[in-house]
Specification:
Length: 332
């Protein structure tokens, strides 16, 4: 378990003091895939670097399995860091080493025998789906392949925690989905706790079970992904979940009541939901905005609808839409 308690981080700059983290407290359970999301400058990367003490907090503490990371002697901290590995947006592979040697590198530093390191590296290349790339160099690989090698390298020392700092931001959508699926599979197979730092809501929706939203260095919302995304309470969460806003001026609110429909893993069906509602229930809906996507036959995202006909039609539409599993409806 990772316990972050009342964490503060302050930087001194030529323009004065910058408070990057302000009283951050989080608990991350063993085996979680935990998302930390926020816009640029929210403090996400600072927080993840404080977890493994690459940045020393100004105040507060980080406990991993009950050990206060900030209080450990240097030698013991180095040992604990081998159990907390990172992957980055830029992959950070050693360009002069082939894939096998990149993966062996952290084991070399840990004093693992060469033959054992090569055996482990081969197993990890198999795990990440690149068994034939042992002798290839990073420059010969695609971005997605480079990130898979980086993941293999991060797993070389049998870590308990994997920190992913914007690990898919440089990848195209299809490759992002592939890498996220790999991370999810690794989490299930190895039981590793994964912390995902991102500004992309879609990444959190796809693989995380819990999420914390940072804004201005503070946690403004935290909880189960489904709960937070279905009904965000903070202004920062609403900006992330509904980037198009809720006050669209493309319809007349005097003539229709607005509702937001949030799909949080609803099963896809062959018949369009809104069209079916119109045909079966005789409820018309003006689609004001929509942002949905399908992942593994499940729908995520939201729609903003205008329902004409007064309160009765609005409630009828709400009842119909919420009869579909994993759909949440709220008035706007």
């Amino acid at each position: 378990m990772i316990e972050i308690k009342n964490l503060y981080k302050t930087f001194e700059s030529s323009e004065g003091r910058v408070e990057a983290l302000k009283d951050v407290s989080l608990t991350i359970g063993d085996g979680d895939i935990y998302g930390i999301i926020g816009m640029s400058g929210a403090g996400k990367s600072t927080l993840v670097r404080c977890i493994n003490m690459l940045e020393r907090p100004t105040g507060g503490s980080v406990l991993i399995d009950g050990k206060d990371m900030g209080a450990l002697p240097a030698k013991q901290l180095r040992e604990e860091r081998r159990k907390i590995t990172m992957i980055f947006q830029g992959f950070n592979l050693l360009m002069q080493r082939n894939c096998m040697k990149n993966i062996c590198f952290p084991m070399e530093l840990a004093g693992v025998k060469s033959s054992d390191a090569k055996k482990r590296a081969s197993e990890l290349l198999e795990l990440v789906g690149l068994p034939d790339k042992a002798k290839a160099y990073p420059a010969q690989l695609s971005g997605g392949q480079q990130q898979r090698v980086a993941i293999a390298r991060a797993l070389a020392t049998n870590p308990r925690v994997l920190l992913c700092d914007e690990a898919t931001s440089a990848l195209d959508p299809n490759t992002t989905h592939s890498v996220l699926s790999l991370i999810r599979d690794i989490n299930k197979k190895l039981g590793i706790t994964v912390i995902v730092i991102t500004h992309q809501m879609s990444v959190v929706q796809e693989i995380c079970n819990r999420v914390a939203i940072l804004d201005g260095g503070m946690v403004v919302e935290e909880g189960l992904v489904g709960t937070v995304f279905a009904s965000p309470a903070s202004a920062a969460a609403k900006r992330l979940v509904f980037p198009n806003g809720a006050d669209e001026l493309i319809s007349n609110p005097a003539c229709e009541r607005r509702m937001r429909v949030v799909f949080n893993g609803a099963r896809t069906a062959g018949t369009p939901l809104i069209a079916t509602m119109a045909v079966k229930e005789n409820i018309l809906a003006n689609i004001l905005s929509a942002g949905t996507r399908c992942v593994d036959d499940k729908v995520y995202g939201s729609m903003l609808l205008g329902i004409p006909g007064g309160e009765e039609q609005f409630e009828k539409a709400k009842t119909y839409l919420e009869s579909v599993g994993d759909v949440h409806v709220e008035g706007v």
